[in-house]
Design goal:
Strand content: 5-15%
Shape: globular
Helix content: 10-25%
Number of helices: 2
Length: about 70
């Protein structure tokens, strides 16, 4: 079972827990200095990450996307 933050986030993974396709998310790409990929994924941004605030064109590029 996934850990939770204890702030009413039951069912959501704790931030330190790696989740599916995390290696394709902007936070991970930035950490690995893949800035050209980050720039491509951010162009025409329609979503923000609820966790880190990064913006992306597609939901799949973020851990917890929220439409803007």
């Amino acid at each position: 079972m996934a850990k939770t933050t204890g702030n009413g986030d039951e069912g959501r993974p704790a931030l330190e827990e790696v989740h599916p396709h995390h290696d394709e998310h902007l936070c991970e790409l930035t950490a690995r200095r893949k800035l050209a990929q980050v720039a491509r994924a951010s162009r025409g941004a329609r979503f923000l990450c609820h966790v880190c605030g990064r913006a992306a064109a597609e939901q799949r590029s973020l851990c917890e996307p929220v439409e803007i």
